[in-house]
Each structure stands twice: as structure tokens, then as C-alpha cells.
Write a structure and sequence with these properties.
With 468 residues, this protein is of the alpha/beta class. It has three domains: 215 residues, 3-Layer(bba) Sandwich (FAD/NAD(P)-binding domain), CATH 3.50.50; 112 residues, FAD/NAD(P)-binding domain, CATH 3.50.50; 114 residues, FAD/NAD-linked reductase, C-terminal dimerisation domain (Enolase-like, domain 1, 2-Layer Sandwich). The strands form five sheets. Strands 1, 2, 3, 4, 5, 6 and 17 form a seven-stranded mixed β-sheet that branches. The protein has a five-stranded parallel β-sheet with strand order 8-15-9-10-11. The protein has a five-stranded antiparallel β-sheet with strand order 18-19-22-21-20. Helix 1 runs parallel beside helix 9. The longest helix has 25 residues.
Length: 468
């Protein structure tokens, strides 16, 4: 007999499990369907969380090998135990995954293990690993199935030598040469991990710049920093084939603008050209859920699809594929279903690249403001002039604030530097409340802190920075 709920959430990634928890807090009888053995989706299992563990560990490894001596810490050359580093990563993943399981249980959310398929509005079939099926019924369904790796035409990913982000998080040894296809977040983060651990890293990017969507001035300085660290870039280039028949991969690369192809040899190739919505097997066509030309589920301002009672959030709908965006949407749709006014401010969603230094941004870029014809003012402040950064020898990068020329309202903030991912939160809060650059400039910041660079950049909007 089918079991009845107020809400069924398909997918337990950041969007799905947060949606389920908020719905339960609001008194809705909630179920969650998860196809994998553990909760947390891509983010917790093979994405955000494990990558941050390896980024952290590899940063410390590089610091120990090249920076400790200058601070009077003598330890000799550090030895890499990659297997132990992978255990460190896996233990972190396990702790986070178990934490989600605990939260679901604490909030009395019933979990169904298996692949979910929508049979009709209000009815979901769950097929377990053993092939057995059961039907779960609810007044509403939220699709939160996330995204999958985008494939490169005619290149088969084996997760051994030709890998996606999943395989790149679990390489058994450091490749002598790693070729990264795609100069986006995933490619640069994982490329930086393996470069620190000893690999030669070459990044091939179709566009003539790295990090599309990021403020161009910031992206260009970011590239120069990564190049000084040893990462090589081939921009305006495309991979046309990968020959895996010999001990080393032979990667064919051609200029996008046309010209002679070249062959680059590599031990491992990481395909990091983006992600696509994961909607296969959900039965969307059969029930009439509409999608756009990119396969994303179409929704209205309240996350409702074209079929009454079916909603969608996260990577399967339009917008940046970010875990925190999915979380906010999960909270919003749960509140809407409970009769409240759930809402997401898409103008204030921060984005962070967790390399070293980090790159974080929120709001508009200078390129976007120019394209839209919006008059703006710019304030910039380098970390080389920040006392804390200088004494810690963390001086690469800068803060850039864009404010409306007429009203001084902050339109965008971009931080390239140490701990940028944490500092961007100040900018997001300020923008959420409609702050001006003067509001930030007149807010007392503790000294000596890196965040003083944000205050100085705000002062620089009116050409009154103190320390530069």
C-alpha cells in the first residue's frame, strides 16, 4: 500500500536534504528519495567537500615545503603519503555524510533508498538496488536530483586515466603530467591540488580567457598568479581527440580560430568542461514536465514546473550550479509549500573558487555593467598594502568594489586573495540590505585583519583609501 506524505523530495544533495529539513520544521510530513548508498549528493560525496579536503591538505604540503623555513620553522623536505591524504579526505566525507543522515533522522524524515521515477503528480516509484519497487504518494514533489559531468564529444571517461572530477579526487598516484580540459572552477581547483603535489599541469580552454563569467580584470590577474605558481595555459584551444592506446595519453589540440593541431602527452586527462542537469530516468516526459533547450526543468518564480504539484530546485533548473544556491531554493520552496513567502535573491549569490589565493565574487562584474550601460564607480585595494597580509606574506590579489555612480549602492564585489571565500560574506550581507560603498567604508573593521582590505576598497570608491 502506498504511503502518503505532504512532500516527497527526490535527491538528498544540499538542495534536497535542506528542503526536506525545512519542510519538516514547518510541520510537513516529508520523505526523501536517494539513489546512492549515502546521502549528500555530488557535493558531499564527490564534489565540494572532498575537493576542499584535498585543497587544504595540498596547500599545507606546499607551505611546509617552501614557506615554513622563511618563518623560522625547520622541518626539512616534507614527504607525501598520498594514501594517507586520501584517507584524510574520505574521513571528512564520511563525517559530513553521517551528519546529514543524523539530521534527516532527527527531523523525522523518512528515507527511501532507490531510483525515483515520477509516475504521475503525487506519485513516485522507488526502485531499489535489488530491483524491487514501491510507490510513495504525496501532495507535492520536489525534484532536486542535481547535475552530472558534461561529456567531451568522442572522449570516453574511464575514471582511471581520462577522468572527471570524481576520478581526479581519487588518483592512486601523482601524475607526472596532468592535462586539464576546461579553465573553470573544477579544472582550476583540482589542477591546483595536483600541481602542489608535484604534477606538471597544462590547462586547455576553449575561450580566450579563464573563468568565464568572472570579472575580466580579476580573472586576468588570477591567471597570472596561477602561471607564476607553475600552471600552464593554452587558451583559445580545443581538444579534438585523446588516444589512450599507449602508456601515455596523446591529446590532440587545435586552435579554435583554426590552424595546425598539436599533440600533447599526458599521464592523466581531467575533463572539466562543466556540468549538465541530471534528469535521466525521472519520467519527466511521460508526466509532461517541460524543459528548456539545455535540458533544465522550466519553473516559475515559485519553483513550480509545468505540472501542478511538481517543483524543481538546484542544478536541474536555471541559474548557477552552486550548492548554496540550491540550499536557498530548498528553503524557499519548502516555505512556499507551507504557506509562507519563500524567496531567493539571485542578485546576491556569492561564488568562490577555492584555489590559493581564493577568488570570490558577488553581484555584477565590471564587464556586465559596461554591457548594460550602467554608470558605476570603482574602488580597488591591493592586499600588498594590508598590514595582516603583508606580515603573513599573503600579498597577492586585491579587492574590487563596484558601486552605482548615482546612488552609491554596491553592485558587485570581487576579492582575489587569501580567505576571500569567507570575506565575501560581508559583501553579500551588505548587498542584501542595499548598502552603499560608504556604509561599508564607515563600518569599523578590526585591525589587523584581511577584511580591512574590503573597507579600504570601499573608501577607494570615493578616492579616499588611507593605506595606499
Amino acid at each position: 500500500m502506498a504511503e502518503n506524505f505532504d512532500l516527497i523530495v527526490i535527491g538528498s544533495g544540499p538542495g534536497g536534504y535542506v528542503c526536506a529539513i525545512r519542510a519538516a520544521q514547518l510541520g510537513l510530513k516529508t520523505a526523501i528519495v536517494e539513489k546512492d548508498a549515502s546521502f549528500g549528493g555530488t557535493c558531499l560525496n564527490v564534489g565540494c567537500i572532498p575537493s576542499k579536503a584535498l585543497l587544504h591538505a595540498s596547500e599545507l604540503f606546499e607551505e611546509a615545503g617552501g614557506k615554513f623555513a622563511a618563518m623560522g620553522i625547520g622541518i626539512g623536505a616534507p614527504a607525501l603519503d598520498l594514501a594517507a591524504m586520501m584517507r584524510f579526505k574520505d574521513e571528512g566525507v564520511e563525517g559530513n555524510v553521517k551528519g546529514v543522515a543524523f539530521l534527516l533522522k532527527k527531523n523525522k524524515i523518512e528515507a527511501f533508498r532507490g531510483v525515483g521515477r515520477i509516475l504521475a503528480p503525487g506519485r513516485v516509484e522507488v526502485k531499489g538496488a535489488d530491483g524491487a519497487t514501491q510507490t510513495v504518494e504525496a501532495r507535492n514533489i520536489v525534484i532536486a536530483t542535481g547535475s552530472d559531468v558534461a561529456k567531451l564529444k568522442d572522449v570516453a571517461i574511464d575514471e582511471s586515466r581520462i577522468v572527471s572530477s570524481t576520478g581526479a579526487l581519487a588518483l592512486p598516484q601523482v601524475p607526472e603530467r596532468l592535462l586539464v580540459v576546461g579553465a573553470g572552477v573544477i579544472g582550476l581547483e583540482l589542477g591546483s591540488v595536483w600541481r602542489r603535489l608535484g604534477a606538471q599541469v597544462i590547462v586547455v580552454e576553449f575561450l580566450d580567457r579563464i573563468m568565464p563569467g568572472v570579472d575580466l580584470e580579476v580573472a586576468n590577474q588570477f591567471q597570472r598568479i596561477l602561471q607564476r605558481q607553475g600552471m600552464r595555459f593554452k587558451l583559445g584551444s580545443k581538444v579534438t581527440a585523446i588516444d589512450a592506446s599507449e602508456s601515455r595519453l596523446k591529446v590532440s589540440i587545435e586552435p579554435v580560430a583554426g590552424g595546425a593541431a598539436e599533440i600533447i602527452e599526458a599521464d592523466v586527462a581531467l575533463i572539466a568542461i562543466g556540468r549538465v542537469p541530471h534528469t535521466e530516468g525521472l519520467g519527466l516526459e511521460a508526466v509532461g514536465v517541460a524543459r528548456d533547450e539545455r535540458g533544465r526543468i522550466l519553473t516559475d518564480a515559485h519553483f513550480a514546473t509545468s505540472v501542478p504539484g511538481i517543483y524543481a530546485i538546484g542544478d536541474v533548473i536555471a541559474g548557477p550550479m552552486l550548492a548554496h544556491k540550491a540550499e536557498d531554493e530548498g528553503v524557499a520552496v519548502a516555505e512556499i509549500l507551507a504557506g509562507r513567502a519563500g524567496h531567493v535573491n539571485y542578485d546576491v549569490i556569492p561564488n568562490v573558487i577555492y584555489t590559493y589565493p581564493e577568488l570570490a565574487s558577488v553581484g555584477r562584474s565590471e564587464d556586465e555593467l559596461k554591457a548594460e550601460g550602467i554608470a558605476y564607480k570603482v574602488g580597488k585595494f591591493p592586499f600588498s598594502a594590508n598590514g595582516r597580509a603583508k606580515v603573513n606574506r599573503q600579498t597577492e590579489g586585491f579587492v574590487k568594489i563596484l558601486a552605482d555612480a548615482a546612488t552609491d549602492r554596491v553592485l558587485g564585489v570581487h576579492i582575489l586573495g587569501p580567505d576571500a571565500g569567507n570575506m565575501i560574506a560581508e559583501a553579500a550581507v551588505a548587498m542584501e540590505f542595499g548598502a552603499s560603498s560608504e556604509d561599508i567604508a564607515r563600518t569599523c573593521h578590526a585591525h589587523p585583519t584581511l577584511s580591512e582590505a574590503v573597507k579600504e576598497a570601499a573608501l577607494a570608491v570615493e578616492k579616499r583609501a588611507i593605506h595606499v
